[in-house]
What we know:
This protein has helices spanning about 45-50, 90-95, 105-115, 130-140, 160-175, 185-195, 225-235, 240-245; strands at about 1-10, 20-30, 35-40, 60-65, 70, 75, 145-150, 180-185, 195-200, 205-210, 255, 265. It is of the alpha/beta class. It folds into 2 domains: about 1-75 and about 145-155 and about 180-265, P-loop containing nucleotide triphosphate hydrolases (Rossmann fold, 3-Layer(aba) Sandwich); about 75-145, no CATH class.
Amino acid sequence: MLDIEIVRKCYPDRGGRSHIALADLRLQVQPGEFVCVVGPSGCGKSTLLNVVGGLDHDVSGRVTLDGSPLQDGIGFMFQEPRLMPWLTVIENVLLVAGDDPTAPARARDLLQAMELGDVLDAYPGRLSGGMQRRVALARAFVIEPRVLLMDEPFVSLDAPTADRLRAMLVSLWQRCNTSVLFVTHDLREALALGGRVCFMSGAPGRVMLEWREGLSGPRLPNDAAVLALQRELLDRHPALLAGLLDQSGNAGQGRAQGRNNIEVRTDA
Ligand SMILES: Nc1ncnc2c1ncn2[C@@H]1O[C@H](COP(=O)(O)OP(=O)(O)OP(=O)(O)O)[C@@H](O)[C@H]1O
């Protein structure tokens, strides 16, 4: 089990005083569980992933996997695909695999599954945005991660491309039994993908609500069951709705972006 206990994570701010980004944050993720994290802009979601992934050690707290410090076996996918322009598609995927002799065959299989078999030797500059994200997805899975950290990986893609990538992610996740921590601003995406959705408070960020009554399996965000689930969540936690929408917002308006920037889409 992935066990995250962050007592405090501070950043120095410009005036020399420290800004408390995270405080008293506790979160556990079971093996193979898909957990989504939703929260206002600036509440510390990226900071949380950086701490969990070991990119930021300047923190009071601990992150363990099955009781030992989490050190390797961590896959990442960020908002930007972060591909090296001077490396080919397959070289980009293999970049994270070290000298594992089984990685090249796995990279090829993953890229075939991502429908990128024809562009293994192409450079990222030749690829569309959606193709670049598929390369990033293959790179995240090539090490067969025990923990996969995803920071709004499908943001700013058109809806069909994002849906296709979500379906590919779900299929890889089901094959690998990886524990996923997936940050998103989009409530419907969170409910569609996550077996559990954790809502973070404003700064300093902590988990203030866990919604465990997810669907029987992942769906696409436009699925009617997701819309019904969102309605149920907002009916049962009206205070959450008040936080999600701005003062003039209305859950019936189709698409609302609250003052804290969580996106609640209620259109079909
Ligand atoms: N390197 C840094 N130095 C100083 N402050 C930082 C640094 N990184 C983040 N912060 C601050 O910490 C807080 C949390 O930032 P973080 O990026 O983790 O939030 P977030 O929830 O991911 O935001 P968003 O949803 O807008 O991406 C913010 O107030 C941010 O300004």
